[in-house]
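Narrative of activities, Objective 1.

The group set out to show that a structural description can be obtained from nothing but a protein's sequence at a throughput compatible with the screening campaign. Below is one input-output pair from the validation batch, recorded exactly as produced.
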Amino acid sequence: MQTSNRRFNEACRAVMLNTRDEKQLHQIGTLGEKTLHAVVKHYIEPDDSKHEVKIGSFYADIVNEGAIVEIHTRSFNTLRKKLAEFMETSPVTVVYPLPNVKWILWIDEQTGEVTKKRKSPRKGVIYDAFYELYKIRPLIDHENFRLHIIFLDTEEYRYLDGWSKDKKKGSSRCDRIPVDVADEYFFNEKCDYLQFIPACLSAEFTTKDYKAAAKVNMRTSQTALNILHYMNVVKRTGKQGNLHVYERNL
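Output recorded for this entry:
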């Protein structure tokens, strides 16, 4: 992890120094929503000449050593056509950055004042990936599909422009600045998806058991097992009341 952190710090410096002059670096929000995406791209591939390469009808974020890398922070449904075309000829890794520890800073648009950062009580977990993975479910079983989840510590700047009394609910995000890489998970083969199954689960389990073991809500549990069943990572062996009973299939 020490090597990864050093490489990540170098990526942060590359993005900040190469894309903005010194004055702009001190202006909150000038880097826009693409800051996190740009840092992750330089972290994975520091060579700019391998960024934004046209392959067929689309541009790939990174092309190196005969493989394609696409970095996406949300709305995986917009990736469907691009991934389908890319995977016809090459392995494609979808990189999904997720928040590990997040600090929130609020910006008063009228005064420009920025509050002290406050640590969000919620910490990201690997199961958060299922919401987006479901949007590309027909593609994730393809032999050329790869997944790379990166957990990042981030500082999130938000405008005080919401509809609630304190202007926080319904507020809009100004920028996300990654400050450290916390952990990484790689899914290159089907057996790697066993990382999504909590070790404490018994040989047979239901969505309710998965919910408790993973400490997620029922919707996430159902989505997770829907995807893992689709990929044949787990199989259904019967029913327990209205719930399917699953077991590992690898």
